[in-house]
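Lab channel / #folding
Pinned by the channel admin:
"Please post every new chain as: sequence first, then the structure tokens as a reply. Keep commentary short and put observations after the output so the thread stays searchable."

First post following the new format, from NK:
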Amino acid sequence: MSVVSVYAIFANAEEAERIGRTVIEERLASCINILAPVRSIYHWRGEIETADEAAAILKTTTEGADTLIARIAALHSYDVPCIVTWPVDKLLADYSAWVEGSTR
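Reply from TO:
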């Protein structure tokens, strides 16, 4: 197995924590780091919008990434949430073993 980081944006830290706790309990992710607040500026329905949001990084395996992404999307309040994977090039073997063990 290999480890990936899943980066996601949430409406607020409370939503990030609620969804993060759920996917960890379901063993889809080993952990979540909530990085709040972030200021986002984006196009939405023909307008430029600005919002205070919460960014988060979740850790999972390559094999579990699709399931995690789908679960986050199902629990998310946004119609089109930002949920992307970042490959992990190098990491401690013990950390990799922990992520893999936490998501089985």
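NK: The helical segments are 13-25, 65-75, 93-102.
TO: also worth noting, The radius of gyration is 14 Å.
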